[in-house]
Model the fold of this input.
Amino acid sequence: MAAHDLESLTGVGPATAQALVAAGFADRQSVASAALEQLLAVRGFAEARATALIAAARSDESPQLDSPAEPTIQEEARTEPERRKRGGKKRKKRKKLRTQYVDLKKLSKKARKKSKTASSKKKRKRWAAEVDRLEKKAKKAKKRLARQG
Done:
């Protein structure tokens, strides 16, 4: 109940509300009467965030909830599997980069083979340049893949 009361404050979600309750702030009145130093002791609070939270608790902008509210349409729509899908964007991007890297390596391997078996010196030179270009692109793709984690 107390955590839900704190969640009605602007900028406070479930995790922040739990941290506040664990630090001894049971409701919005205790946050409103708290000193800045007390909120700074809570994990995850910097001076700006603590000041904003105290101001929100003291103001009448954030309505105080006496009973748990019905979930909004947006909250109902955002089910657990859909929350996991958001993290899937990064996974898809990594997969795309990995595929791109592998494809570039395959193409450079084919180009290297053609550069060795080309009929004229001019064609061998072109294929060698193509190998260099593809390997450079593959190296960049590998760096992007490493940055993605």
Observations:
- The mean pLDDT is 78.
